[in-house]
User: Fold this.
Amino acid sequence: MDALEGGHGSHYEQACTQLHELLVRIAMNEVFRRGPRYRITGPELNDLAHQAAADALMRITHKIQEFRGDARFTTWAFRFVVLEVSSKLGRHFWRVSHTLFDLDEWTQVPDRSGSDPVSHWQARELGEAARNAVETALSAHQRQVFTAVVNGVSLETLASELETNRNALYKTMFDARKKLRDQLVASGHLSATG
Assistant:
């Protein structure tokens, strides 16, 4: 860590190389864990991990003076690369995703948990009702925010993309969830007391 504070020289370059290798490993683990959810595979995952590691290294070297030693340096650095991965995955979602929900994916949950056919049918019916409620009960803005949050877009990325703040997003999500619940109660899919 001390070598990074110098900002130049062979020790600095060596420290940056070692840190970058660590950041790439962390980023690779993170994108392989989260990438399939965003339908990102193959070389695109590798590229995203390397970009996140490079951007994290740049941020770390610019903020090295802020490191207070409250945690291990690697823990502090880990935070930067995970945030970069989240940001890049969120941006990818906004560039390529225009779908709301994939009903077939939602209905696989009962199969994976070993539920009986009746439970599977009920889950499928609830999934269809939820998708219908999202499409009909929510405003376009609520639908956009709700869909992004359900798909794992971080609130920071979402706030940046929509040029708003987290509090406004919390309010939008609160209102959207209330509308969805009300519609699912009205259609008999949820209990009014539960």
Remarks:
- The two ends are 53 Å apart (CA to CA).
- The mean pLDDT is 77.
- Residues 10-34 form the longest helix (25 residues).
